Amino acid sequence: GEDVEQSLFLSVREGDSSVINCTYTDSSSTYLYWYKQEPGAGLQLLTYIFSNMDMKQDQRLTVLLNKKDKHLSLRIADTQTGDSAIYFCAESPSNYQLIWGAGTKLIIKP
Amino acid sequence: DTGVSQDPRHKITKRGQNVTFRCDPISEHNRLYWYRQTLGQGPEFLTYFQNEAQLEKSRLLSDRFSAERPKGSFSTLEIQRTEQGDSAMYLCASSLILGTTPGEQYFGPGTRLTVT
User: What's the average model confidence in pLDDT over B60-88?
Assistant: First the structure.
């Protein structure tokens, strides 16, 4: 079946890199996504990666995809307090549906 | 630039009552989605519309739930005979069909439903 798994919490020091990991099950997913959810705000698309890519970089964000192991990661360089949020990994097995992980809460320590 | 809006933001209702939520998508977006999110979980897909046509419904959407998008613009989600298990955040999202990937969806702030 379809399932996306993430660890629930990650704590990092301000200025360090954060790496949020995700595993998924549906190898037919053409795209994989990272969304950010801040308190009181709607989910916001951060970045996505096409399944035939290994890596995608966008400013402080780096997405790595290991298709063989069905493993996706999001690296945030120079983590700032404004990066505090819940980060969701999602896969797209069809042309309309997203299957979501439970989210990883990123906690920034000063 | 107006994003996706949802109304109301919060709703408290007694078990057995009916509730209706409204979503106004981004104006040029032809797809509209409804999700449900409970604490500590990711969103769960409920249904989606392409223009005014409801193209897919999740098995989570029991017959107490109905959604409409009568003119292909705003949408309503109605829950009849609410149960305590319906307490959740109901999220609406919209997207374009062409020129984007399927998951490039723009989300509203959600309607938090509490059934007492």
Answer: 94
Comparing B111 with B102, which gets the higher pLDDT? B111
d(CA A26, CA A22): 13
Cα–Cα separations (whole angstroms), residue A33 to A12, A79, B7: 22, 20, 27
CB spacing of B3 vs A48 below 8 angstroms: no
Q: Is the CB of B67 inside 8 Å of chain A's CB atoms?
A: no
The encoded tokens of residue B97 equal 């069909």
Interface mutation target, options B10, B41, B101, B111, chain A, most CBs of A under 10 Å: B101
Average pLDDT, chain A: 92
**HSE of A21 in the Cβ direction (CA atoms, 13 Å)?**
6
> Which of A3, A43, A99, A104 to probe the B interface (max B CBs under 10 A)?
A43
CB atoms within 10 A of CB B27: 8
* Model pLDDT for residues A28-77, shown as the tens digit of each residue: 888 999 999 998 788 999 999 998 999 999 999 999 999 999 999 999 99
The encoded tokens of residue B78 equal: 């109605």
SS3 category, B67: strand
